[in-house]
Amino acid sequence: MVSDSKVVRLCLTAMLAALAVVLKFSPLKVPFPMLPYIKFDLIEAP
How many domains are there within the chain? Predict the structure, then answer.
């Protein structure tokens, strides 16, 4: 039987992968407060 920690780890990995896919294809960009012409794309943040 699979231990609970492995199941939790697998679920967390799947959720983070799904979040990465959503951020990759969303047009969400955050403006930099001091220079409004600079935009940050959330997928580029580590």
Answer: 1
* pLDDT single digits (tens) 12-30: 999 999 988 887 787 766 6
pTM: predicted TM-score of the whole model, two decimal places: 0.56
Concatenating the DSSP letter of every residue in 1-46 gives ---HHHHHHHHHHHHHHHHHHHHHH---EEE-SS-TT-EEEGGG--
Which residue range is the domain that position 19 belongs to? Answer: 4-44
Q: Which two tokens stand for residue 31?
A: 């403006």
Token couple for 20:
């990465």
